[in-house]
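Table S4 entry, Tetratricopeptide repeat protein.
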Amino acid sequence: MSTDIWAWVHDTHETLAESGQHRLATALAEIAGHAVEGRNEQLDAMYPEALASARALGLPWVEVFLRHWRLQNLLNKRHQGEAAMGEAVSLLEFAHREETASCPQSVCAVQDFTICHANIDGPGYVPERLAVLEETLARVEPARACFDCLSREYADTLEDDGRAEAALAHLDRAQSRIQAAGEQVSLAFGHSRASALYRLGRYQDALAAYDTAELAYVTARHKLDDDDRRKLAVGRAVMLAALGRPELALGQLPAAGEAEEFPDIRHRWATAVEALVAAGAYENDTELGVRLAHWVGYLDAAGSHRPCLDLLVIAGRLAVRRGARTVALTLAAAGERKLTQLRRTDGVAERVAELRAEAEALPVPALPVPVAELPEWLAGQQIPAEAAADLFAAARAEAPSTAVVVNLAGVLGSLGHTRAAADLLWEQLEEDGRHEHLIGMLSQMLIEAGDGEGVKRLADRLMPTNPADAHWARARWAAAEGRWAEVGEHCAALVAEEPDRINPRRLGAAAATRLGDHATAQQLYEELLEHALPVEGTPPDQQYRTVQEPDLWHLITAATANRDWAAVRAVGARIGIDFETDSGPVDEEWQLITVRATRTNGATADLPAVRTGPATARILPVLGEDVPLNHRDTVVFGPALLNEPPAEGEADGWRPAFELLTLLDPAGYTTYWLDGAWPGTEEWVALREALGETEYGLWAYSGGEYAINDPAEETESLPGVYAALGVPPTASAAEADALLLRLTKHWEHPLSWLDLAEAAGADADRHRGIVERYGL
């Protein structure tokens, strides 16, 4: 088996593009990058359509490729375990069918399968992982990239078995074979070597392994991307912290926000932070505890049992160090539950037992007031949440009332321990099944914990006697999962049961907006205004039932999408907007804003636009096919501000950003591309103004670094320009071609507009010649 996977990708991409399958060709070219660099939104947007296209076209090799790289993302970037097992098993079977066995990517399904088992319980599946890897490595040539990947996976498996020396020896042998085949090991190979050295306590050697791997990678003329830099930095932070060099470790440690965004570095980040806390170089505060608790919950829900336990123990030890008794005991209990999901518990079971013993040794706080008075007393104090949890836990041990349990669960939930909070509430529900706050809190904790089965169980229990709350729980869970049609159904059923409810109308309207049903959204917001309570005289805990300013803005947005200009003006007047005219469409010039749209590949595009009303804007750039908008299109945007307003005195250049909601009035422009030498600012401005006089659009995309060949001097270059021309619907391609020829005929260097010339039936060879001479 020696097929070059990337040569196959290149050839298949060309074939797909030539046959008109441009979107599938793009997916084939981009999905691996999205997967390994953690661009999850782009991958999730691209994958379903690409997979469906591959299947519809009968391209099983393409299907293997797409599914493998999605699994790489799910397993390595998102650290899924049991959540991805079904797909890992399915792909392994599919990749070894007769029609796919020769696919160069099919062998990678073995790696996906073993990584998935490692995420679930690496040590527990050592025999199975080694067996399948040995069989696969025996039939893969060392010159193939797959040999590098599988060798690293084999070493990781040996590490999980406590055989770090053997892992290091295996990596040495694999590297020798790869180099003997005329290839170099990957940058990731250096990470595997550093990991084995770390297990052996050889921290300085591990640092050197990172340096050697990075130097070799850069020397081979590869460029480090953000993902490479992030993983190298967190690895070095771990080693430097272990070496007792906290200042250097802090300099390498990625920001907490990066670890929040990229789950693949979280365990190493937490490992480094624990060492830095011990050195007094990092603050062990509640915020850190909450962050780690959320990460533990994420791994728990993903079915990554072993990584969850490893991180949980770190979080627990840090909680003990903070004196957070209830949090530490909560983590210990979670660890004991996770142990039951492992095949092999030696080593980790002892660490969980130590955590429980240390947590139980922490002092139990004395209650400052009687149990019945504790909630009210705490409400008047400024006590840290972890200390409040300890007080409520002590109160529960003394007198387990529903009020105490609900308060304890609420505090635990705020600290990131939503599953533990839900477990407490389930237990109390058996004692006090009709307590309104208990049911509401349990519903909230289940949703935050991502426990869909728990939500269903609660809703089924409530339906016979309390259908409104049952529908509300189901509606909120459906919203959390983005199932907007179900949200609307449950909200409608709830309002039918209790017509005066306000929040279900808000959520139902939001769901209708997501579905593009702006008529229903407008109707629900108008009903909300009818059923809302007056602000004056409504107690503070019921103020949510009054009309809030965001309700009015959402109503304006829905009415705008429905072209109900009378409603827009009426609600606008209520907010205090003065319109230039008293009737008809609102089409004014307010300010420059940014409209955030979604590209066809799932990435976002921030588009400059002129705000023309409270919820409308006119798009300024000329755009390509990857954005479903174009020059002078009028769009409706959502009312929520997406970027922080600047501080006073720092507003220069700042534009408010809003999310695209829908296209209201398409202007009908067609885009063609211009490429060539930069004519100078004066000539370019003159061209743009001349085109603008006849309603054409022109938008330059190239920056100052864009350069093209100088045909007069082979060793020299010229500054270039790459721009989009927007042709209005009133002009033909032939007219646009003639206009450009007339406006640029005096330029020293000609521009090329090959696609426009072809559409116009003009002299396309002239433009091909320009492309060739200037190296465009």
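The two ends are 39 Å apart (CA to CA).
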